[in-house]
Amino acid sequence: MDLFDDLPPHPDAAPTPIAPGAVLLHGFACDEAVALLQAVEVVLQQAPLRHLQTPGGYTMSVAMSNCGSLGWVSSVNGYRYTACDPASHRPWPAMPACLLDLAQRAAAQAGYPQFAPDACLINQYVPGAKLSLHQDKDELDLLAPIVSVSLGLPAVFLFGTSSRKDRPQRHRLVHGDVVVWGGPSRLAYHGVNALADGTHALLGQRRLNLTFRCVR
Ligand code: SIN
Ligand code: FE2
Questions:
Q1: What's the pLDDT band for 13 if we cut at 50, 70, 90?
Q2: Gap from CA of 114 to ligand 1 centroid (Å)
Q3: How many CB atoms sit inside 10 A of residue 194's CB?
Q4: Residue 63: CB partners within 8 Å, gap ≥ 6?
Q5: 66 close to ligand 1 (CB < 6 Angstrom)
Q6: Which of 55, 131, 178, 179 has the fewest CB atoms lying closer than 10 Å?
Q7: How many domains does the chain fold into?
Q8: Does 150 map to a domain?
């Protein structure tokens, strides 16, 4: 085994195509991570992270919140997008300009210009938290891609095809990485393995993931 196998690719590494229409932009958000995290903290003061229930009655290990005109929520009644936070009955916090700007630049870099997300789901993972394989299909606009930003502890991201039967590929995502998937990969099954223990210089024992979506 090579001594350097475990090092993340340099932030300037060329994008890695992971499937048709899907690309991993290494370190794309690194330089602006502190500003992004400050903006996310302000959002989370208005709409705190919470563990949602699934329709199956299970409590998700990932804690979630949202910003933007719509937010994704799950409950025993199903999955849906709402204009208000069910916890406060107030509109979700607006999407901070620095988040929107990053998402638009990443989408353009990946070949999706004119990306106009109206929803940003904020996922927080602590060691042991995971997200089982799923498709993002509650959005009305399936022509727009999903833009997913990873901050904090590294994770193993699973990315398959639109068929649940196909075995997903594993990709290590580190702080600052951005994955964009659209076109033929828009409905690809994806998930995150249980987060390994660790401590990140900016986020401590946490991983934050931001996914930007066009819902309407
Ligand atoms: C998601 O599918 O909503 C999150 C993916 C991730 O945390 O990388
Ligand atoms: Fe997802």
A1: confident
A2: 22
A3: 13
A4: 49, 50, 51, 123, 124, 129
A5: no
A6: 55
A7: 1
A8: no
Cβ–ligand 1 distance for 209 under 6 Å, the answer yes
Q: Whose CA is nearest to atom 2 of ligand 1?
A: 191
Q: Is the CB of 123 under 6 A from ligand 1?
A: yes
| C-alpha to C-alpha distance for 113 and 88, rounded to whole angstroms | 35
The tens digit of pLDDT for each residue in 130-139 reads 999 999 999 9
Kindly state whether residue 31 falls inside one of the protein's structural domains: yes
Helix (H) or strand (E) holding 168: none
Cβ(124) – ligand 1 distance below 6 Å: no
Query: Ligand 2 centroid to 136 CA: how many Å?
Result: 5
Is residue 55 in some structural domain? yes
Q: Provide the domain limits for residue 62.
A: 16-143
pTM: 0.95
Please report the pLDDT score of residue 1 as a whole number. 46
Q: Does a structural domain hold residue 34?
A: yes
Predicted confidence (pLDDT) at residue 5 exceeds the cutoff of 60? no
CA distance 216 to 214: 6
The answer to whether 96 and 161 have CB atoms below 8 angstroms apart is no
- From the CA of 136, give the closest atom in ligand 1: 2
Provide mean pLDDT across the span 167-192.
98
Least confident of 12-21, 36-45, 62-71, 116-125: 12-21
CB of 200 closer than 8 Å to CB of 153 = yes
Amino acid at 178: V
